[in-house]
Amino acid sequence: MTAATTLTTACIECGADLELEGAVVGEIVQCPECGVELEVLSLSPVELGLAPAEEEDWGE
Questions:
Q1: pLDDT above 90 (res 2)
Q2: CA dist., res. 20 & res. 14, Å (int)
Q3: How confident is residue 12, by pLDDT bands cut at 50, 70 and 90?
Q4: How many folded domains does the chain comprise?
Q5: Domain assignment present for 60
Q6: Cα 50 to Cα 37: distance, rounded to the nearest angstrom
Q7: Can you give the residue range of the structural domain that contains 22?
Q8: Up-side HSE of residue 46: CA atoms within 13 Å toward CB?
Q9: Residue 23: inside a domain, yes or no?
Q10: Given pLDDT bands bounded at 50, 70 and 90, which one contains residue 46?
């Protein structure tokens, strides 16, 4: 059994340190300092982007 990899990066909104444990590309993470939702775009190197806003499906 392998341990989950922990990556450290900075929030793109407020600069706070973020620890991403076992993160995968496409995962949405939340900054513990400012609360912004970020999407993991790449793991090597670690790249974050603002998570896409959820759109209403209006029952479709």
A1: no
A2: 16
A3: very high
A4: 1
A5: no
A6: 6
A7: 7-50
A8: 19
A9: yes
A10: very high
What six digits make up the tokens of 53?
């806003």
- Average pLDDT on 11-31 reads 95
38/13 Cα distance (integer angstroms): 9
In a domain, 1, yes or no: no
String of DSSP letters for 21-50: ES--TT-EEE-TTT--EEEEEEETTEEEEE
Quote the tokens at residue 27: 């995962």
Residue 28 resides in a domain: yes
Buried-exposed string 6-37: b where 16+ CB fall within 10 A, e elsewhere? eeebebeeeeeebebeebeeeeebebeeeebe
CATH of the domain at 28: 2.20.28.160
